[in-house]
Every structure is written in C-alpha cells, then in structure tokens.
Design a protein that fits this description.
The structure holds two protein chains of two kinds. By secondary structure, chain A is an alpha+beta fold. Chain A is built from two helices and four strands, in the order βαββαβ. The N and C termini of chain A lie close together (5 Å). Classes of the chains: A alpha+beta, B alpha+beta. The interface between A and B is medium-sized, with 20 and 22 residues. Bound molecules: protoporphyrin IX containing FE and iron/sulfur cluster (SF4).
Chain lengths: 65, 441
C-alpha cells in the first residue's frame, strides 16, 4: 500500500495524527507529515484506511492498495 | 497597512475602537431597521432566520425539511439579504471560494461592517475576518500556540478544573438532586482555560460570558445598541496596556511582540486577535460539551459504552462533534455572482451551516443517527478550508475531558425539565437541568 498526503489540501484538522500516529506526525503549525516512505506495513493498513476516511479535506489518498 | 501602525505613545494617537457603536466601526445597514421584520419564521426556505429562538432547538428538522423540499440554498430578506446553503457540497464550495465570499464579517447581524472598520483582507478580528493573502500571515502567528503537542500538556489542568467544578456542586442525592449541566458545569470550562492562556484576571470570567452573549446572540437588534461590544473593546485595550506595562508569559504578551512581514504589531490587530480568541472558544466549546451531555442524558446505551470501553472515545468525540456541531459561520458576498442559479449580490450575507453539512445524507450514512463508533467521519465541525478552527485541538481536549469526568462522577443521569437552547449561529444548551441518578464515590 502506498499513501499520498497532499500538503496543499491539508488544513491541520489533526484527525490522521490522532487515528494513526504510526503513519502521521504533525509539525509546529499543526500540518500533517507523512512518516512512512514507500510501502505501508500490512499491520497498519487498517489505520491508514481510517485516516483516509476521516480527513475532512480529502488530503490523504491511497495511491496503490 | 502601514498607516494603521501607531504605537500608543505617538502624539495624537487614539486607541482603536473595536465595538459596534455608531462613532466606532460605522456599522451600516442596507435596509432600515424594523424589529417587526424579525418575528417568528413561517417558511425557512424563503424566510430563513437562525435568530428565531425556535431555530436552534429544531435545526436538524429544519435542514431535513429543506433537503426533502430539494432546496439546497435557502434565502431570506432579513438582515438585508441572506443565503443559506445546507448541503455539504454547497457549504464546502463557499468555504473554499474566498474570491467570491469574503470573511470580513463572520457573524450575521443587522448591520454590516462599515468603511472605517479595518477593511478586507484584514478585518476586525484576524485571522477569522481576514481573506488571503493577509489571512495566512495572521494565522501563522497563532498556529504554533495551538498545535497538538502544545495543547496536550493542558490535559492535567483541564481535568483538575472539571473535577473541581463537580466538587463544587455540593452534596447531591442520587435520584433526587437536579443540577444545571450547562450553567454549573459546561460553561465554566472554556472560559477558565482561555482566560489563563490570555493572562487575564480570574474575576473577569463573568464579564467574558456577557461579552460573548452580546457578540453572538443579540444579532437582530438595532446596530449601535449592543454596547457590550464597545465595552469588550475597551476591556481588551486596557488588558493590552496592562501587558505593555507588565509583560508576562502568556498569549497576549506573545502576540504583542510579534511582527507581520517585518512590521511591528499594532494594538488594533493584537486587540482583534485577542477578541477573537476570547469569543471563539467560549460559546462554541460550552455548546459542544452541553450538547454531548444532552445526548448522553437521553441515550444510556451510548453512555454505558463510553464507560465500558474508554477507547471508543476517539470515535465518540468526533461523532458528538458531527451530530451536534455547534458552529455556523458566515461570509459576505464579495462580488455579484451566480451560485447554482442563486443571484447573489455584493454584500449579501451567506450563512455557512457546518452543522447542516454534517447531516447531509450524501456525505454521511444515516446522518441523523448517532453512531458512537462511526468509522468514517469526515465531519466539518471545525470548518473546511483555510479557516479551519485554530482552537480545534484545545476544543477536543476540553470536550473529551469534560465528558469523561462527568460520566465518571455521574454514571447515570437524565434530563429533568426543559433545555433552553442558545439563539444564533452557535448552537447548544444554555440551561439544561439534569437529574443525577447515580453518583460514583
Ligand atoms: C467545539 C468547539 C469549537 C468549534 C466547533 C469551533 C468551530 C470553528 C469553526 C467552524 C471555524 C471556522 C470559521 C470560518 O470558516 O469562518 C473556527 C475558526 C476559529 N476558531 Fe474555533 N471552534 C471551537 C473552539 C475554539 C477554541 C477553543 C478556540 C481558541 C481558543 C477557537 C479559535 C478559533 C480561531 C482563532 C478561528 C479562526 C481561524 C481562521 O480564521 O483561520 N475555536 N472555529
Ligand atoms: S486529517 Fe487531513 S487535514 Fe487533518 S492533518 Fe491530517 S491530512 Fe491534514
């Protein structure tokens, strides 16, 4: 699974960091930072999907499932 | 912007005026004010008024009726002309379109900001009244103070505050005692937290609640009569003076020391930002806590689930915020535009009911159903686009801890009489008697 974070769309709602801190961090302005480069480990797929389906700005997407 | 920069000791300097007095911001009206125009609403599709006291208690039914009548954008001649999109798509579109819709004023009232108030793109209370490009500069000053990792450490203080409010309820008898969960509990939490952050005296908390009422609830009264707004301006200006003489480690002193684009901050912009922080966090969070407890009082099954399975709180919190989103914002039309067939004219109001968007069936499955562990929940309670609530991390913390401590102390409670709801853009219980059925020791 490959994730994409669109920094232009992210408005720092902080939902991804709350739901999947293994995959997302937030910077000092509250903007999301994607922590994984490349393949998302299988045990985090469910959390990745949760983050995607709770981002109000549609800033996170699954590039390859 | 440079011509507004004037330090307080400049000869001839006059303190800024923040209020709505006629000699202040020169509020102007598009139609002569007639109190009879603001009576009860008979048809929300053509005569929408969120200032009707019947609106907030019944808002979800109003949205549903409008949706069933295939009316995505309601209209009203009140307030000099107002449009009300109620679907997620239309709310989203307007929130993103800062070119046609300005944030210069985000609270609908009979008057619009006049020519002497700070014009777009700054507005009277940056960044909420600001448009691009100034908006991002003002917002960047505040964001670090409210970032998740800065807010997290407040949890202990918020918890202590909630516990002490519960302790202060005195001796209660299970099955008999009735408390007002809105007045005696919910309202005090955000007031106390923001007061500490801004570095204002504890004795002024009562004053803040009145300021909030004047700003957000007395919306359909004659412009110039809302004297509390002038008092608020004077109060904030005195606080700024006090912080100038006695700088301290708080948000007010921090903002006074900042710069925008290399230009020293002036009192007018600092004052506007401080007013925003004071007003934006109080009614809103009070409402969110109150509505959540209102729900739990009537849904023991959700209450039990939160007690049995504390982990569910991550989802429950967002579901409270979705189903009972307290905040509707507004915009002014910046230039004539045709919005899906609606002929919007410059300076018409547009309400942005994020709470209605949160119950749109095209966006949420079973939107009128409260699902305590809803897994897919892209709710818009904190807004959409560039104005996303700066206080959202703080608000979530306060809401979570307030609910946790209340249900821990009172494992069962029920409504005991009529709940009185707020009037205007912020929706939540203002008086909410609940009977305590069980008390934990
Ligand atoms: C549950 C509680 C709250 C809710 C539902 C809420 C909701 C909102 C919404 C919907 C907006 C967007 C405004 C717009 O689009 O015009 C907003 C903006 C804002 N809120 Fe909140 N708010 C809450 C609590 C707070 C708190 C506690 C604070 C700070 C102490 C705060 C500070 C702000 C600020 C500064 C903005 C302006 C952001 C900007 O314009 O860039 N809010 N809030
Ligand atoms: S949930 Fe979306 S908008 Fe919020 S921080 Fe994450 S990516 Fe950004």
């Amino acid at each position: 699974m490959l994730l994409r974070l669109d920094a232009e769309k992210c408005q720092g709602h902080n939902r991804c960091y709350a739901l999947a801190p293994e995959l997302f961090d937030v910077d000092e302005y509250g903007q999301s930072v994607l922590l994984v480069e490349g393949d998302v480990p299988a045990e985090l797929h469910a959390k990745a999907r949760l983050a995607v389906s709770n981002c109000p700005e549609y800033a996170i997407s699954i590039l390859v499932d | 912007m440079t011509d507004t920069v004037a330090p307080a000791d400049t000869p001839g300097y006059e303190p800024p005026i923040f209020g709505d007095s006629p000699e202040g911001t020169h509020v102007w009206q598009r139609v002569p004010y007639n109190p009879d125009d603001y009576g009860p609403v008979s048809d929300f599709a053509t005569d929408f008024d969120h200032g009707d006291p019947a609106y907030n208690p019944n808002a979800p039914e109003v949205w549903k009726e409008l949706r069933d009548a295939k009316c995505p954008v309601a209209h009203s001649d009140r307030y000099g002309g107002m449009w009300v999109p109620i679907t997620h798509d239309t709310v989203h579109e307007i929130a993103y379109d800062t070119q046609h819709f300005t944030s210069r004023s985000v609270v609908v009232s009979v008057g619009r900001p006049g020519d002497l108030s700070l014009p777009a793109p700054i507005g009277g209370a940056p960044p909420i009244t600001s448009d691009p490009p100034f908006h991002a500069m003002a917002r960047r000053l505040l964001l670090p103070a409210f970032a998740p990792k800065v807010i997290e450490p407040w949890e202990t203080k918020v918890r202590e505050l909630c516990v002490s409010l519960l302790d202060r309820l005195g001796d209660l008898t299970a099955g008999e005692s009735i408390i007002d969960a809105a007045q005696q509990y919910a309202q005090h939490i955000p007031v106390s937290v923001i007061r500490q952050m801004l570095g204002f005296p504890e004795k002024d908390e009562e004053l803040f609640r009145r300021f909030v009422h004047e700003t957000l609830e007395r919306i359909n009264e004659e412009p110039g009569t809302r004297t509390g707004m002038d008092e608020l301006g004077q109060y904030i200006f005195a606080q700024i003076q006090d912080h100038r003489e006695n700088p301290r480690d708080d948000l007010t002193s921090y903002l006074m020391g900042t710069q925008i684009e290399g230009i020293e901050m002036n009192d007018e912009i600092v004052g506007g930002m401080v007013i925003l922080l004071l007003i934006a966090g109080i009614d809103t969070t009070w409402s969110a806590i109150g509505s959540s407890l209102w729900h739990l009082a009537q849904h023991p099954e959700d209450h039990q689930r939160i007690i049995d399975d504390p982990e569910v709180m991550t989802f429950a919190l967002e579901e409270f915020l979705r189903a009972y989103a307290p905040v509707t914002m507004a915009r002014l039309v910046a230039e004539d535009t045709d919005f899906h067939g609606c002929p919007m004219k410059k300076d018409d109001w547009v309400l942005l009911p994020f709470p209605a968007a949160n119950r749109d069936p095209h966006q949420f499955e079973d939107p009128d159903q409260f699902i305590v562990d809803r897994q897919e929940n892209r709710h818009a309670a904190f807004g959409l686009g560039i104005h996303r609530c700066i206080g959202s991390n703080l608000a979530r913390l306060e809401l979570k801890v307030a609910i946790e401590e209340f249900v821990k102390r009172f494992p069962r409670f029920e409504l005991a009489g009529d709940t009185r709801w707020s009037v205007g853009q912020i929706r939540g219980p203002r008086e909410m008697p609940v009977r305590i059925l069980d008390i934990a020791n």
